Amino acid sequence: MKLSQECTLLQNELKKFAQQVLAEKVDEIEKSCSLPTDNIKRLAEMGIVGAIIPESHGGAALDTIGFTVVLEEISKVCASTAFVIAVHNAFFAYPILKFGSEEMKKRYLPKAASGETIGGYALLKTAELEHGGSLNGPCLDGKNPFVLNAAANGPIVAAVPLTGPNGLNLYVIDTDTHGRKFTKTSKTVGLRSAGIGEYSFEKVQPLQANIIGEENQGQMIIDNMNSYARILLAAISLGIAQGAAEAAIKYAKERVQFGQPIVSFGMVRELIADMMVSIEAARHLVYEAALRVDRGEEYATAAAIAKLLAGRSATAVTTNAIQVYGGYGYMKDYPAERYFRDAQMLNVICSTPDEDKEIIAKNTI
Predict the structure, then answer these.
(1) Which letter, b or e, does each residue of 35-50 get, where b requires 16 or more Cβ atoms within 10 Å of its Cβ?
(2) DSSP states along 316-335
(3) Where exactly does CATH 1.20.140.10 map onto the chain?
(4) What pTM did the predictor assign?
């Protein structure tokens, strides 16, 4: 699939940046499990942090295919950095941009575009957070250990169930909201530097002025947001797979056994071939889903297919990469095990493979 000249130039720029800047720091931030603030700052200077935000609000106004190749290149080297940028755009900027009021856009998007604030998203799927109501509106009480970009401690988008029949509202909860507190970074198996963490909420009452969209539109907005996010997360899975394959091939060319590089062994060559077939198939589906968005076509099914296959590809490719490394693949001195762990995390964020299959089946039958 041929990219436009503009998109190819952007891809080359980010590839150079990832190899020259991100590669030097990825092991350090992985060991410290710290948010890659320096990486984010550099990407903000390049305009990437505000990727989908219009120029009128200080953003880069990238189209979806452009943002897809950006995330792919970054995640080849550091998936955690790519994830922070993807969450900031898909789960924070996107719902405000598409459904927020003009006042809300002016209040949040310029700071989000410059990187002054990094937005987060509080996943709804937790039983440790109580949702109640009072005379002053909905109320949050308890904790949520699954807040994306939590460590950035910026404004977060949160879904709040209504007290009546089934329904949701989507709110922005500001950093200085009384009762909201970042408590700790979650110890995840992968994406350890992506700032996924826990927030405690003590009788937090979201402001009515901070509602995204209209009353009881929360689920509709989440469905739209998730469809868009699936493409970005699929791009990160694709980048992980490509990065793992490139690292494994480089190792296979350098590793000598029985007087010859192991890349000349039939079993290793078979693993490499399987990796490349899987990656190329996933890339076509991910790019096509992104292009559907840019063409203004329906893309929910294509996004689910792309995330499902890219996730499978990343899991299979990183497993094969470990096999190429042999015993070294299980050691933290080499990147294969990090790629493998990051791939596992991407499979369960936003939607699980089973949920992606349900979307595909529902929209196909």
Answers:
(1) bbeebbebbbeebbbb
(2) HHHHHHHHHHGGGGGSTTST
(3) 219-364
(4) 0.96
Q: Which two tokens stand for residue 94?
A: 């996107």
User: Residue 276: which residues within 8 A CB-CB, separation 6 or more?
Assistant: 245
Mean pLDDT of 270-295: 98
CB 140 within 8 A of CB 120: no
Correct CATH for 5-114 of 3.40.50.2000, 1.20.1250.10, 3.10.490.10, 1.10.540.10:
1.10.540.10
Scanning the chain, the segments in alpha helix (DSSP H) are 5-17, 23-32, 37-45, 64-77, 79-87, 94-99, 102-114, 218-254, 266-294, 300-325, 336-346, 353-364
What is the domain class of 120-217 according to CATH?
mainly beta
In total, the chain counts a number of residues equal to 365
Q: Residue 101: how many CB atoms within 10 A of its CB?
A: 14
**Model confidence pLDDT, tens digit, residues 152-193:** 999 999 998 876 666 889 999 999 999 999 999 999 999 999
Kindly give, in sequence order, each residue whose CB lies less than 8 Å from that of residue 69, ignoring residues fewer than 6 positions away.
Answer: 3, 7, 10, 11, 14, 235
- Tens-digit pLDDT profile for residues 55-102: 999 999 999 999 999 999 999 999 999 999 999 999 999 999 999 999
The reply to whether CATH 1.20.140.10 applies to domain 219-364 is yes
